[in-house]
Structure formats: structure tokens, C-alpha cells
Amino acid sequence: MKRYFVIYNPSSGKELAGLKIFSAAETVMSIENIEFSFYATKKKGDGEAAAIRGCTSGYDMIIACGGDGTVHEVVNGMMKCPQRPKLAILPAGTVNDFAEQLKLPKAHDNFASLMLQNNFKTIDVGKVNDDYFVNVVGGGAFTTIPHKVTIDAKTILGKYAYYYKAAVQVPEELEISQNIEYIIDGNSYNINTLLFLVINSSGAGGFKYLCPKAKLDDGLLDIVIFEKTNNAELFQIFTKVFNGQHITHPKVHYYQGKKIKIIPEKELLLDTDGDPGGFAPAEIQSVHNAIDILVP
Do both 205 and 76 map to the same domain? Predict the structure, then answer.
């Protein structure tokens, strides 16, 4: 008998995450002989600790049900274990950037069908200092917005809570910049930076094509750097982000690499998969073929 371990955030998705995963598991158990165990996170760090227990307890698959933060914690727990089961994600958060990139279903019945299909893809993850990430590490303008949105605001407004917070802070955020040295596979670049994003998939923050050349299984990380410029040029760049054409603009720098060092003039707070992720200076690298994940 297969054994699946579900780690879910009960406050995710307007507090409907538990109902979604229970319904999906019930459907699967009515068709196949699979045992499900459930764990509800209560505080920061619970997902990581639970994932470590899941890896060391002989489960065939760990299922993360929640938003990007839940997935981030579960992957960090799994990556700390030498033997890792397969991973599945039922997106149930306010923002589900990584799940969107994989085109994972949100409805419980579609997720149940996905579990029954049993189709997996081996993907890379990123590592920044001692922390792992599945999707993105960023620094500079707008990257701390997710940390400032309350749980109550997310429950009431959903993803629009982020958009509102960002809109309110536009004037302040556009004043942020500093010179940063980027060392990418040994090559050095110095750029007066408004914002940088190191991405494992192709999108983040609701934008699907921030790094249009990115692949989840190529052993590389993609970095897009937005150089400090005037507001007129920034608006021009922004209009091109929706189709990936921003990378052709002379004030946007795009690179790929296995190892990336971020060396700012002054200490810089990082965002990692939507949560505070320590500070730069930082070393970031790709961990190739790290996890087998359930995909359509």
C-alpha cells in the first residue's frame, strides 16, 4: 500500500485548504488503496519540520497544500534529507506562483485525477546561502511587499491585497536603488540596481514571463536585473514584462548561470519564495535534479 503524507496550511486560500485536500484524498481512496496522513501547520517552520518527518518515515509522497510559503517550507525540509519521497502540490494560497508555472490544478477533483495519473517530472531547486527555494529570490524595489500584507488582508482581498499594497508604495519603492556586483559563473557585472530576481522557473509575482528562457530542469538559474532609470523608461519596460520582451531593453540585464554571487554596497534584505529570506551578500546556486514532482 502506498502512503502519502499531506502537509497543509489551514489558513490558506480563505481557510479552505483543508477542505480541498480532504476532498481530493477521499476521491483517490475510493479508487486506489492509498493511505493518507494529514498534518496542519500552525506556525512558521512547521512545514519544514513536518517534511523532514515525512522523509524519514517511509512515505511514498509528500503533498504540500497551501501557498508559495507552504511549498517553500516543505521543500526546505525535503532538501535536508538524503532520501526524498516524491512531491505533489495542491495550490491553495493567495498567490501560487510556482504552481502556476507547472500548470497545477487548483480544484480538488482535478487534483485527485492528477494523483491517479501518477506522472512525475524531475526538477531543479535553488539554494541561497543555507536556504532552498523552488521559484525565486529577489532584492530591491517591491520585493518586501509580500512581507507587509497581513493574513486578514489576504483572506479578505486575496491576491488583490498585494496589488493594493504595491500601488500605495510605488513612489517610495521607485526611489530604491544601489550598486550591486553580480558574479555569475565567474563573470562580474556592476549594475546600479532597482530590482533583481533570480528565478528557477520563468515567472514570479503573477508575471509569467519575467525570465522567458528559464527551464526547471536545465541546471541553471536565470537572473533578470532592472537597472535604475527614469520613470518613463520604467513604464516602457513594465509594459513589455507581460510578454517577455522586457529583456531586450538596454536597462534590463538578463543572464543564466549555475552559481551567482550577489554583493551589494550595503546589506540588502532578500525575498525567498514570498517570505523574508535573509540578507545579501549571498551565494545562490542551482541544485540539479533535486526533486521528483507530480505534474499534469
Answer: no
CA–CA separation, 108 and 129 (whole Å)? 36
CB contact set of 144 (below 8 Å; sequence gap of 6+): 269, 271, 276
The number of beta carbons lying within 10 Å of the beta carbon of residue 243 is 10
The Cα–Cα gap between 122 and 126 comes to 14
Say if residue 165 is in the same domain as residue 84: no
Predicted confidence band of residue 164 (pLDDT cuts 50, 70, 90): very low
Cα–Cα dist 212/235, whole Å = 19
Q: How far apart are CA 220 and CA 136, in angstroms?
A: 13
Per-residue pLDDT averaged across 5-29, rounded?
86
At 176 the pLDDT is 76
Domain coverage including residue 100: 2-118
Q: Which of 94, 118, 142 is the last residue of a domain?
A: 118
Q: Give the residue-averaged pLDDT of 16-20.
A: 80
192 shares its domain with 257? yes
Residue whose C-alpha cell is 559563473: 185
- What does the chain come to in residues? 296
Question: What is the number of structural domains in the chain?
Answer: 2
How many Å apart are CA 285 and CA 127, to the nearest integer? 5
Instruction: Look up the pTM and report it.
Output: 0.87
